[in-house]
Amino acid sequence: MSMPFGSWPSPFSAASVAASAPRIDGSRFVGSEIWWGESVPAEGGRVTVRSSAGTEVLAAPWSARSRVHEYGGGAWTADADGTLFFVDGGDQRVYRLKRGGVPVPLTPPGPAHGGLRVQQGRLLAVREDLQAEPHRRAIVEIPVDGSASDDAAAIRVFVQGSAFFAHPALSPDATRIAWVEWSGVRMPWESALLSIASVDGQTFAPVATTAALQPEWVSGAEIVFADDPSGRWQLQRLSLDGLTPRGAPEALTATDADTGYGLWVLGNRWYQPVADGRIVAVRTNGRDEVVVIATDGSTRRLEVPCDGHVSVDDVSGSRVLLSGNSATTTPGVWCVDLDSGEVVTVTGGTPTDADWMPPAAPIVVDGTHGAVHAFAYAPAHPEATAPAGELPPYVVFVHGGPTAHVTGAASSAIAFYTSRGIGVLDVNYGGSTGYGRDYRQRLHGQWGVVDVDDVIAAARGLADAGLADPARIAIRGGSAGGWTVLSALVRGGTFAAGISRYGVADLRMLAQHSHDFEAHYITGLVGPLPASEALYIERSPLTHADRIDVPVLLMQGGEDRVVPPAQSEAIRDALEKRGVDHEYVLYPGEGHGFRSAETIVDALERELTFLGRVFGFEPRL
Predict the structure, then answer these.
(1) Please, are residues 316 and 293 in contact by the beta-carbon 8 Å criterion?
(2) What is the pLDDT of residues 6-20, one digit of tens each?
(3) At CA 288, angle to CA 285 and CA 291, rounded to 5?
(4) Which residues pair with 129 in a beta bridge?
(5) In terms of C-beta density within 10 A (0-12 exposed, 13-18 middle, 19 or more buried), how is residue 173 classed?
(6) How far is residue 397's CA from residue 80's CA, in Å, rounded to a whole number?
(7) Partner residues linked to 494 by β-bridges
(8) Which of 289, 405, 548, 611 could form a disulfide with 434 if both were Cys (CB 3.0 to 4.6 A apart)?
């Protein structure tokens, strides 16, 4: 059937997208079972823990969510006997839940916790106390018997201070502990130390590193961690005599790919040591691959479905648990046997229908600052076609961060558009992770310049190739991506409409409201205050809102603490004053990122209706 692009009938309703988009939050071997964390959009985005035995381990209203460093991560773990330890999203205390029991608090009210890990029978955590002045963070051991629920003194503190901490790892004999730390003056992907200390706190040994990630003890005399002195995060091996390094770290691999990316959350695991000396690791160069590194340094690629934001969550014998996204399946958890190669889908991982969701095409275009990487999702429908000569409208997606990346994963949220005849171009602009340090550092001091140049280059490249209607290209992004949306609309000339979800509009306002983790982020992206105040004003879209002359849809969470509503409302007011076509939607109760099914449905339907109105097609909701 021949129908205009944008008006094709689709089975991907906004409600089905919301229902099919649970976020996987780690997985663990627990006895003979496998447990995993999973968001429940229909319950306001509550994060539950489920079991391969078909049971829900963490029932409503409990939700495993951490707010440490604002973005959380590592909000649950479990021991081999089936005791769940989790951070409650409401009060940020750590709780113990035994099989058949009820949650019992293990920490007193007040501080937030995250990065939970059970090692040698001990429960480790990253703690953050924003009530203390100055704010304090620590790596701690929490008694599992509940003795610290009303007595903070019962909690063992390994290290504390105003610095940031992540990835605690206890030595096999439990006498030493390693972790990653950074000052906060620079972000962890710019500079982070590997530190090792005795558990009694008597001795401490920082190790000279560039941007260390995830230390793991492979023996009592050896630590493996990821670092990027070569420009790519590679696994490094450090030999120790007690706490004293025996020379400099030695790279285990040398490849044009990253094992690691931006340390936004505490739960990511980019590799796992296996008891026999092998290592299972993720390597990222745009997309992910999973490899097994043998004891002699040789590598073997694992044939697994997941190839985006893969986490090596756990290992047991020759089996590993992988969670992540895929170009050909829905997000999921997979159990892989390293010896036989058998891959068992634990949850999710449903193969997508290529007639509706063909794999994204990686593309590279020439930009002002060098090559620009992106993934193109062309309109796809098994029956519908467009009239001869019509080119499709496209939406350029801009990821947040900005130090993050997209992987070309299959997505019902993207199929929501492509199945209706609207193409999507997902851009990894300069500053994105996944392509090495040089690509990541393109944005240093150039936020609002390089990212804008790159999304414009990607959009024009698609139009110049005859794949998109140059008069019907919109741009859409959230948070830092929303900043790029607004900045690109200020630049003008390429995009016919913009959709900003909780986008940054005023750099000075962002600097005033930034939480601890990102307090100095803008310094690297733009410059220090007050010396760079003029640049902050010049770069801010709000300063030049009078240049925006195309329709804009603004959507905002009412409880957003990262980018408060005042940012979107300032743009709204500027557009309203000049009579520019715009819509503003405030979602009460939503934070930085929309979680509830009701909000997800409403936002998607509003976006589609907005695009249809602006681009002149009749969408079918």
Answers:
(1) no
(2) 999 999 999 999 887
(3) 105
(4) 136
(5) exposed
(6) 42
(7) none
(8) 405
